[in-house]
Each structure stands twice: as C-alpha cells, then as structure tokens.
Amino acid sequence: MKNHFNHWRNHIQKLFEQDCKIPEENEGNDKDSQPQIPKEKMQNFLIYLREMGIQFFKTRVRVDQLRNSQSHLNWNKVQSLIKKGANGLSKGDPIIISQDHVIADGAHRVWALKMIDKNADIAVWEIQIEIGNLITQMKQFLNHDENTLNKDE
C-alpha cells in the first residue's frame, strides 16, 4: 500500500511541477508564508475586501483551469483529502483564487480533486485582483483582525 501511495505521490509531484506556474512576485511561497483565511473569518474577509473597493464573486471553476501559488504541498494532506471523494471536495467551502485563476488558499483541496478527476469543478471565491496583491490583502486582513482581537483583550 505504501509503495502504491509513493508511486502516486511521485506521479502527482511531477504533474504539480509541470503545472506550477508561480508568478514572480509570489515565487517560493509555501504554506508557512502563504496566508490562510480560516473558515470562520471568511465572511469578515469578504466585508474587508468590499470596504477596500475590491470586487469578488462566487462561482465554480474546473480544477484543470487553476494554477498554483505555493511552491510546495503537503502530500500527506492531499492523500487525506482524497478520502473525502470528488463530491465532498467539489461541494465543500469555496477556495480563494485571483482574477487570473491562481490559487491563494485551497491548493491541497484542488490537488486532491485533480488526483480524483482532473475535469471536476470546485467552488471558488474569485477575487478581482492579481495574485500578489491578493496575498498582500489576505495578510493585511489577518494582521488587522489579530490587532483588533488584541485591543479587545
């Protein structure tokens, strides 16, 4: 079983490297430096974007149309997400992408779904700015949110 998983991981890693079209301004980002918007803060993040004058909409996009912004993925996490199946991944909470379909948050779910069905679609919040600016806005929101919490304590 472990050899089967290693075979798949190596195969998907090669596909990932071929697909990994990381914009220069975001080159080398990984999950440690890539901001993550927690599910419970998504509504506040959308309000923040609206207040900043940034447009967005919720839609569905085929996973083969999405590009990566992270240079590394946790393949154990991808494998555990595969257990949710295509339906669970496709119909789950929307991921966050830029206007040019670069993934800002949700890459592991996209890759798990790609392993199951590369033609599947996934729910997304498409933010109408380029990826570098989107990541900056995500970081600013999280910093603002953290500073607001610290003031309340």
Unreliable residue runs: 20-32, 149-153
Helix content: 40-55%
H/I helix tally: 6
Q: How would you sum up the major sheet?
A: 4 strands, mixed
Structural class: alpha+beta
First-last Cα distance = 50 Å
The dominant shape is globular
Strand order of the largest sheet: 1-4-2-3
Q: How many strand units?
A: 4
User: Into which percentage range does the β-strand content fall?
Assistant: 5-15%
Order of helices and strands: HHEHHEEHEH
- Compute the gyration radius: what is it? 16 Å
Report mean pLDDT, rounded to a whole number. Answer: 82
Can you offer a commentary on this structure?
The protein has 153 residues and is of the alpha+beta class. Helix content is 48%, strand content 14%. A four-stranded mixed sheet has the order 1-4-2-3. Strand 2 (95-98) and strand 3 (103-105) form a beta hairpin. Helix 3 packs across helix 5 (107-116). The termini are far apart. Residues 20-32 and 149-153 have low confidence and may be disordered.
